Amino acid sequence: MTSNVVIALTKGRILDAELDLLSSIGIVPEEDPRKSRKLVFGTNRSDLEIMILRGADVATYVEHGIADMGMSGKDVLLEHGGTGFYEPLDLGLGKCRIMVAGLKDEPPLPSRLKIATKFTNTAKRFYASRGVQVDIIKLYGAMELAPVTGLAHRIVDIVETGNTLKANGLVPMDLITEISTRLIVNESSYKTKFQAIKEIIDALESSVAVQ
Ligand code: PRP
């Protein structure tokens, strides 16, 4: 393990906002991660490195202490389970909701529903909390197609503008939880690299407060 502080970011559409936030507290990668195939980048600070990962992997790298800190969607953290790290800050990026959705013109449904989702743990917890038994069907994308084709009765998915639901003849039904990007910190890094990590958390907190 390096004595540097390693920050894991999520690649994809949220990366721009994550890099802007880091830049707002004076941390800039030596090379633009969006224009490179590299996965680890030095920064303008010799004690800081940035790692670019798939969203679902940020929590795993932070849990195992390979990355000391990370920026990860709450949707992914809820699926991951969240052990081995703290979640000190809501970064306020990537705001959306996890919702149950179904066909706008829904036919009569059986008492035991089939629910298609990639958020299987979140969906299981939601229905268990309501005491409702369902069958979960794991999908990796294009969830909206499941009720349309008859694969499932309803879906549990991310809704941002609602345009994808609408375009596929679906409507939002139940709000499961609000989602945003969170800062996570490995528990032992927080002790061993306390000063550097605390400075970054405080700077991010101030920056988020004025966004
Ligand atoms: C997400 C989600 C919906 C869509 C919702 O998919 O799964 O399909 O965004 O956004 P909207 O309410 O603004 O229409 P994403 O584009 O992230 O792709 P994915 O299939 O990889 O989840």
Give the gist of this structure.
This protein has 211 residues and is of the alpha/beta class. It is 33% helix and 31% strand. The strands form two sheets. Strands 2-3-1-4-11-5 form a six-stranded mixed β-sheet, with helices on both faces. The protein has a five-stranded mixed β-sheet with strand order 8-7-9-6-10.
What would you note in describing this structure?
This protein has 211 residues and is α/β, with parallel strands linked by helices. The protein folds into 2 domains: 5-94 and 180-209, 3-Layer(aba) Sandwich (D-Maltodextrin-Binding Protein, domain 2); 96-179, Periplasmic binding protein-like II (D-Maltodextrin-Binding Protein, domain 2, 3-Layer(aba) Sandwich). It is 33% helix and 31% strand. The chain contains 8 helices and 11 strands. It has helices at residues 15-24, 55-63, 74-80, 120-129, 145-149, 163-167, 187-192, 194-210; strands at 5-10, 40-42, 48-53, 69-73, 85-90, 96-103, 113-117, 134-138, 154-159, 170-179, 181-186. The longest helix is centred in the last third of the chain and has 17 residues, at 194-210. It is elongated. Bound molecules: 1-O-pyrophosphono-5-O-phosphono-alpha-D-ribofuranose.
